[in-house]
Amino acid sequence: MGALQFLIMGVTHPGELRSMIGYKIWRDNRDITDPKEFADTGYDRESMKRCWDLLDQTSRSFSMVIKELEGELARVVCLFYLVLRALDTVEDDMTVPNSVKLPLLRDFHLKLHEPGWTFNGSGPNEKDRAVLVEFDVIQKEFALLDQKYQQVIGDVARKMGKGMADFAALATPELPVAEVNSIADYDLYCHYVAGLVGEGLSGLFSSSGKERSFLKDQLTLSNSMGLLLQKTNIYRDIKEDVDEGRGFWPRAIWGKYGFNSMKELTDESRYRDAQWAANEMVLDALRHSCDALDYLTLLKNQSVFNFVAIPAVMAMATLERCFMNPLILKQNVKIRKGEAVQIILRSTNPRDVAFMFRDYARKIHAKVPKDEPNMLRFSISCARIEQWCEHHYPSFLTIQQGADGKATTGIDPMSTDARAPLYLDLVKQAREAAEAERREKFMDDLRARGIIKPAVPETEEEKREREERRLKMENEPFPWVMVIGCVGALLAVMVGMGYGIIYLVMKYAD
Hints:
By secondary structure, the protein is an all-alpha fold. Helices cover 66% and strands 2% of the residues.
């Protein structure tokens, strides 16, 4: 960014500028080139050094979060990304005929165990062709990975390659990229290209010991996390994909608005209909948001959480930025760098991430026009995110720092939520029960030490005598004579004192 852009940001978004400056000065990023990190990052090997370079070339955003992963997990995920990037490059390259592409996609997982294999058949304009031209370097480092990691990566590459080939096989000379027809087909395609990535990452996290073993079995949540990111990218990249002859939006969405092909979506004369189709793509992506939030609550390692949370929040931010934005059909729309930095700084715990999801959902809902065909569905979808946040992190509760420095939960004193007094009653009852239990334990301790003598049970004779005394007192007549006598004596005294006071006043008045 130039000085002018920083100046404009300082005027229009001063908070983002401050975040960028603070991030640059205070952020302590992991240095993979540090000799102390070589055992985990492998940067002392020329092959692995080249793999890190390839990662930087193919993805700046993922490169940053991958490098921050703890220990050897950063190197493992780096190679996992490069393998799948190579596979994705084969699929996306429209210059590779299906006679070559389909067998390569289906057998790509076997190339991971074939030393020296490379592929030079990519088109000259393919931006990520380097990962295929130099795949032997990636394979060399892959062979050095622990078997538990190789198994996960190989399994994902096998499933992904087969799925990509199945969709690529539907293409024809007239339609080089097969259209996605139904929403179910769209979900299946996104599962192959992104959902499997989520499943693979969960497997790697569990295998590394950084996360609990059951995470690898959370296939639905892992898949949803991948679909949220993939569908956001497909929605945002509509102009680029149409220009390059690709089309991943399902016909079930754009076809209902009268379009015969995806190219017609960029026709400015039909902007309104194209906008409704684009909005429905956002609606489809939002249905994965709550699963993504559920997945984040399962993570316990901070670096893994940051790795997963940051792209997820950026996806929500991208959906909000592109929603009802006419530029999406003309160019690639991205969030501001300052906003991205703020997301990185805040994506440190499930609560703050959930609140950012909620805030972006509110902004999307606020921009829904009155004539939006899916206005009610948008309200429901955004309300589900709101409900998820309120269920897991009630708004009437606040997190406070205790005297010992630890975080505690308390009632927001400014809250008008009707649940607050109910919660306070529950807290009061729990406190009273705990106090009663404490007193009882204290008395039991005194009895055990002999300080308090246990009560001796009454004998039958003592019970009979106590009952006789009670009956005698109940049957005795009320002592009216004594009461009247006492009252009369009291009145006589008061009258006497009154006359005495009057006599003294009369005597000394003169």
